Amino acid sequence: MRRTYSQIDMDERRKIARWRAAGLSATVIAEKLGRHRSTIFRELKRNAFEDPQMPNLSGYYCVTANEMARERRAKLRKLARFVHVRQAVIERIVHGWSPQQIAGRMRLERHPICVSYETIYKFAYSADGQAIKLRRHLPERRARRRPRHARRRHGRRFSPELNILHRPDTVAERKQFGHWECDLIQFRKKFGKANVTWANAHTSPWQRPRRKKARGARQANRLSDRTGPDPSASTEADSQSHSHWP
């Protein structure tokens, strides 16, 4: 079943202020208004007036709460009023920045006009954003943005069994020579469907003798008998097909 939401209006805010002054809890107010209690808790938290110099004047006032909510909704129009901010946001989205990165960079650089990533998402899916097909440059490239209750964070991409902590002790403590150490690097998908580079580093004390005489060959054989075989010799052939610890 599709969920529908409606913003709290001025009439409801008058009732909330009156019942709050009478000492009613947010749960009781929610039942009287036919709202979910989380809606009332959020309203009291976001739109309550706070005076740090005179705390006795702090509280929930319907007129002040309605003005604070109106100003918050007007943040979406920042990208419509300030052309240079809108153009900067569009350019960064086209170049692969996510709305979270853009909003975070603006706060980090103390930009005089900051917008949240929710504002950027709303702009991307608004009529102006759809006109320039801005959603195609977003990370998920969805035709429509999912409702907030349907969004969820992705879990782990790798199973716990492949954690590096489960590698053998001989590998973790580097007691043997000849083991492979590799890093998987995945590039941006716009360069291809599966651009993965395997950068490996191989260390071994062994060297292939060149034109050794009989005496040198006998010395090499004695050294091999004393130290044991090179562990990399047996894994070098099938290293291309193994990307995790056995």
Automatic annotation (TrEMBL):
Residues 137-161, 200-246 are annotated as: Disordered. The keyword NADP does not apply. Residues 5-47 form the Transposase IS30-like HTH domain. GO terms for biological process: DNA recombination; transposition. It comes from the Bacteria. Residues 232-246 have a biased composition (Polar residues). GO terms for molecular function: transposase activity. Residues 137-157 have a biased composition (Basic residues). It holds the Pfam family HTH_38. The keyword Lipid metabolism does not apply. Keywords: DNA recombination. One of its GO terms (cellular component) is cytosol. Transmembrane segments: none annotated. This is IS30 family transposase.
